[in-house]
UniProtKB/TrEMBL annotation, chains A, B:
Every HTH arsR-type domain range: 1-96
Keywords attached to this entry: DNA-binding, Transcription, Transcription regulation
GO molecular function, a single term: DNA binding
Protein name: ArsR family transcriptional regulator
Coiled coil: none
Length: 112, 112
DNA sequence: TTATTATATAAGCAAATTATTATATAAGAA
DNA sequence: TTCTTATATAATAATTTGCTTATATAATAA
């Protein structure tokens, strides 16, 4: 069982204590995504999405790779928080239906 | 593995994404406490503490029992969130040293 | 009864959060 | 080069949060 000190944990829980970011992380746990996919999924402005993923990136729980015009985000399995996050996500129902909706609309970009 | 829907989980994580409340819950996991003990532990005003425990009570993760003048708070093991919270708390280092400090000052009230 | 102790509630305020629109930057296509 | 697409950053506004002080309520002791 990985242990994370209490202040860091509080910070992490606050970060994940937002419906949008929590759903993002749950989705990234099984599929990489780019910003424009999240924009569709969450019906949110592109800067809004960018700000959320930046917060996730700032604490190192997601990482990015540029692929042409797109920046692909994925869960950072090297993060010190990864085991903790895994445990947490296991309690959440799959959000893959959101990806399926995207595919049905022909709006899926990343192929992972 | 207990599953909690994503919106409720986000709400719960936001609630626990505060250092004071997270520490309270970690302590309550092993020992019941009253408000005045928390006031000492967190060097915070009594209304400040009361407001934190009320938030925890409002979503049902802690319960209260009056014992004379004191109101004793404990983790509510019947909460739908209890299994989730247990998993989460297992990643946290014990905060019992805070209780020991209280005892050394002769300020421990509840005996559980 | 009055005084004391423990807790809760109300009001106020500064700081943080989450969204928006406007604009800048980066990559690829024409 | 210019145009389009994808993303990031800046500035701003509305809301929420987390504390404080002042006050109310509840239980016990004198």
């Amino acid at each position: 069982m990985s242990t994370v000190e209490i202040e860091k944990t509080a910070m992490l829980l606050k970060l994940l204590g937002d419906k949008t970011r929590l759903t993002m992380v749950k989705i990234l746990d099984s599929h990489d995504c780019c910003v424009c996919e999240f924009v569709e999924m969450f019906k949110m402005s592109q800067p809004g999405v960018s700000q959320h993923v930046r917060k996730l990136k700032d604490v190192g729980i997601v990482s990015e790779t540029r692929r042409g015009q797109w920046v692909i985000y994925s869960l950072n399995k090297q993060s010190e928080y990864y085991p903790f996050i895994q445990d947490l996500l296991n309690h959440l129902p799959s959000q893959d239906f959101k990806l399926l909706e995207l595919e049905e609309q022909g709006l899926r970009i990343s192929c992972d």
